[in-house]
Every structure is written in C-alpha cells, then in structure tokens.
Amino acid sequence: MISEEARRSIGQIVEQAVCARLRARDDAPMEITEADEQQHRATLPQHALVLTISSLTFRLLFVLHFSDDDATRACYPGLNRGHALADVLMEHVNLCCGSINQQLVAHFPDLGMSTPFALSSRCIDFIEELKPDHVWRYALRPGGVAHLAVTACVCAQAPVDFAASAMEEQSEGELELF
C-alpha cells in the first residue's frame, strides 16, 4: 500500500534526518550505509530507543540501536554533564524524528509523534508482527568510531503515495505545540 516513490521519499527523509540529527558533533563525519536484513540483525548493538510518527493513513516506527560503550560515549558530549548515554541519545532521537515529522507534515498534515522509549534491540525480532509495508535498515558510524544502527518501518492502513521535494535545512530547538 506504499508506492515506490513514497518508499524512496521516506528513505531519503530518514537518511537526511539521521545524518543531521544523530551526528555526534557538528564537525564529526556521519557514515550511513544501508544494510540487508541478515547483516543488520547480526550486528545490532544491545539497546534500542523507539519512537513512532503516526498519521491517519500510516505509522512510521523509528528504532535507534546503540551500545553503551566507550566509543559511543566519546561521541556524544552531553555525557560530560553527568547525563546517561540513553538520555543524551533520546534527545538526539527526538530531534531526528522531529526532523522527519517536519518533512512529512507537508504531505500528511495530521501527524503525531510519540516520546522516545527504551527497549532491547531484540524488539525488532518481532517487527514482522506489525505487518510493515516497508522496512529500512542502516548501519551508522558517528565520528567514524561508534557503531549505531537504525531500523525504520512504515505500516500503512491506506494507500501512501507522495514525492518528497528538495529538503531544506531545518533549525534546531524550536518547540512545536499541538
């Protein structure tokens, strides 16, 4: 129920948001590569942060997988203020999904976004239970040293067809009220 153009557009939107909002520091590189299902499952870090973006016609599930290790901790500067890695990454995931939401709202004005919540990365073993129309899998290397992964899927309740236009750079920190 999701057109090929909509798949391409959502993939493009997710990739742009990941590169812009999950970056460890502004000057640090963000390597992002698509992964096949077997490779993705075999290399998943232990922890996951999950967020959903929902409309009347579809639900997008976004899962950031991470390990609480020295390489990941070194990439995210908020930790030196005494915050837990999961808390710092929740802020990044919220910004990332906020960016995705802002791009999608131009085509689907009835969007809502959840707050991030923590699960085990093994939660994606049950992703097929959602009967997704499409799943995207990415391996990430923020700063060239940490290993993160993203799983995103769309579950459509009605046909989804749109084409994303050229995406503008978005500002950070703006509060959107509903």
The class by helix and strand makeup works out as alpha+beta
How far the N terminus sits from the C terminus, by CA atoms, comes to 28 Å
**How big a fraction of the residues is strand?**
25-35%
Q: Which consecutive residue ranges, at least 5 long each, have pLDDT under 50?
A: 168-173
Task: Tell the overall outline.
Answer: globular
In short:
The chain has 178 residues and is of the alpha+beta class.
Q: Would you kindly provide a written description of the structure presented here, covering whatever features stand out?
A:
- There is one protein chain.
- The protein is α+β, with helices and mostly antiparallel strands and 178 residues long.
- Helices cover 28% and strands 26% of the residues.
- The chain has four helices and seven strands; from the N terminus they run H-E-H-E-E-H-H-E-E-E-E.
- Strands 1, 2, 3, 4, 5, 6 and 7 form a seven-stranded antiparallel sheet that branches.
- Helix 1 crosses helix 4.
- It starts with a helix and ends in a 22-residue tail after the last strand.
- The model is unreliable at 168-173 (pLDDT under 50).
Give the SSE layout.
Blueprint: H1 4-21, E1 30-34, H2 37-42, E2 47-54, E3 58-66, H3 70-75, H4 85-104, E4 112-113, E5 117-120, E6 134-142, E7 148-156
Antiparallel strand pairs: 1-6, 2-3, 2-4, 2-5, 3-7, 6-7
